[in-house]
Amino acid sequence: MPPLEDLWQKYLRRFALEHWYQFAKQRLYWTRPQLGSTQAAERWSDLMPLLTWQLWLARLACIDSPLPWQSTQDKLSPGRVAQAFPLILATIGTPAQPPKTRGKSPGRAQGHQPPLRKRYPTVKKHASKKPKAEESLNKADSTAA
C-alpha cells in the first residue's frame, strides 16, 4: 500500500483531470464523431492530448480576442486559445492548394457501390412485460372459450 501522502497528492490531481475531460468533450468534440470501428475511436482519442498540447504551446503566439462579455486574460487558457486559433491559422496560411472552381462533379463510377457499414443489433435492457391485468384477462378469455 502506498503511503498516505502519495495517495493524497494523487487525489488532489483528479480535479485537474476532470476539468480536462470536460474541456475535451465540450470544446474539442471528443465524443461527437460517430466512428465505425474501435480502432478509429482509439485514434481519435489519441489525438485529444496532442490537441491540448498544441493549444498550450500556441498560447504564446495567440492574441487574446475576448467576446464582449469576457474579460481579458494575461495567461490564456486552452479554451481561450481555441477561441482565437482561427486567427493563427489565417496568419500562417495553409500548404493546401486553393479549391477548384465549382462545376458538375463526375460522381461515382458507373455501377460502383460502396460497401455497406456493419450494422449492430439494438441493445435492449429488458423485455417488455404485459401488465398483470391484461394477463389475467387473457387467461380468463382462453378458459372461457
Summarize the structure in short.
With 145 residues, the protein is mainly alpha-helical. 49% of the residues lie in helices and 0% in strands. It contains four helices and no strands.
What does this structure look like?
The mean pLDDT is 82. The protein has helices at 4-26, 38-57, 78-92, 132-144. The protein is an all-alpha fold and 145 residues long.
Biggest beta sheet attributes: none
Q: How much is the average pLDDT?
A: 82
Proportion of helical residues: 40-55%
State the assembly state of the protein chains. single chain
**Overall morphology:** flat
- Termini separation comes to 71 Å
The total count of helices amounts to: 4
Low-pLDDT windows of residues: none
User: What structural class do helix, strand and pairing data support?
Assistant: mainly alpha
The total of beta strands comes to: 0
Q: How big a fraction of the residues is strand? A: under 5%
Brief descriptors of the model:
0% strand; 49% helix; mainly alpha; 145 residues; 4 helices
Topology, element by element:
Elements: H1 4-26, H2 38-57, H3 78-92, H4 132-144
